């Protein structure tokens, strides 16, 4: 996903948030749920940086990395977290490899 695609995704999220504010939820309670599902799904498409808190405490345990959204550790080299569907951003680790 490039920068332009991420921007489009963020823009879509904002539009859905605005639409949610203006829809008549009292008349159609399912609409609120619908908007929440769409916004949540779009947010998962925006790559979230992999967390490695152990990295800060112990340099020897750097291999432990996990999904920043749900905490799943079974994400090795994966584009999406198999547990929650969050798109993962490995950029920081790829950059480290070149250092
Ligand atoms: Zn996850």
Name the hetero compounds present: zinc ion
Number of domains: 2
Shape descriptor reads: elongated
Gyration radius, in Å: 17 Å
> What share of residues are in beta strands?
under 5%
Terminal Cα span = 24 Å
Number of strands: 2
Order of helices and strands: HHEHEH
Structural class: mainly alpha
Q: Give the strand order, joined by hyphens, for the main sheet.
A: 1-2
Number of contiguous helices: 4
Helix content: 40-55%
| Major sheet attributes | 2 strands, parallel
Weakly predicted, low-confidence segments: none
| Average pLDDT figure | 83
Summarize the structure.
By secondary structure, the chain is mainly alpha-helical. Helices cover 47% and strands 4% of the residues.
Question: What does this protein structure show overall?
Answer:
The protein has 99 residues and is mainly alpha-helical. Helix content is 47%, strand content 4%. Strands 1-2 form a two-stranded parallel ribbon. Helix 1 runs antiparallel to helix 2. The longest helix is centred in the first third of the chain and has 20 residues, at 3-22. The two termini are 24 Å apart. The protein binds zinc ion (ZN).
